[in-house]
Amino acid sequence: MDIVLDGQALVLHGAFDVRSTWEVRNAIYERLESSDSDVVIDMTDVSTIDVTALRLLAVATRHAWLTGHHLTIRNPGPAVRRMVHLTRLAHAIEVERAAATA
Fold this sequence. Notes:
Blueprint: E1 2-6, E2 9-16, H1 21-34, E3 39-49, H2 51-66, E4 71-74, H3 78-87
Parallel strand pairs: 2-3, 3-4
Antiparallel strand pairs: 1-2
InterPro entries: MlaB-like_STAS, STAS_dom, STAS_dom_sf
Domain STAS: 10-102
Protein name: Anti-anti-sigma factor
């Protein structure tokens, strides 16, 4: 898993699973603690995700809310969306809505 900071967004590349959860967790919490603004996690290049990673996102979303921040997921691919749906964590993870195109 590669994590790149792009403005306020953490851009993730690769497989987001139990092996990379701790690294992603540290990056998210570091951003939440070091910034007064909201955090966006860009998942455009995330190839796969597992339940452990989704639980991390749910807990981090709750932590952000409790500390007065907002954590949003941007551009989740079909595999990520499918796992969010299957695990029924859609209510706990905020996904950025894409702008409608005409």
